Amino acid sequence: MNKHEKTTPRFAVCIKNSEYPVSLELHKIYRVLPDEETARDGDLRVIDESGEDYLYPAEYFVLIKVPQQVERSLLQAS
């Protein structure tokens, strides 16, 4: 996929942060960026508390669908 292609935004809730308590807040919704290669390795590329995207174990998150109004709000905040 071309890096500049539009994709549907994805979001996930953090359910574990034991190794990254400063970077990830439990129960918070995070934006997930597409990265097929890391997904195959069991990771997710997430925009964390620093505002940058980093790789985290996928088991730390549950992917969720959010209503369109919530999606717009989350995208404006990032």
Descriptive account of the structure:
The protein is an alpha+beta fold and 78 residues long. The chain has one domain (10-77): SH3 type barrels (Roll), CATH 2.30.30. The chain contains two helices and five strands; from the N terminus they run ββαβββα. The protein has helices at 36-40, 68-77; strands at residues 10-14, 29-33, 43-47, 53-57, 61-64. The protein has a five-stranded antiparallel sheet. A hairpin with a 5-residue loop joins β3 (43-47) and β4. The chain is globular, with a radius of gyration of 12 Å. The model is unreliable at 1-5 (pLDDT under 50).
Count of separate DSSP helical elements: 2
Unreliable sequence segments: 1-5
Question: Which architecture name does CATH use?
Answer: Roll
Q: What is the 3D form?
A: globular
Q: What is CATH's topology name?
A: SH3 type barrels
How are the SSEs ordered, and which strands pair?
Elements lengths: L9 E5 L14 E5 L2 H5 L2 E5 L5 E5 L3 E4 L3 H10 L1
Antiparallel strand pairs: 1-2, 1-5, 2-3, 3-4
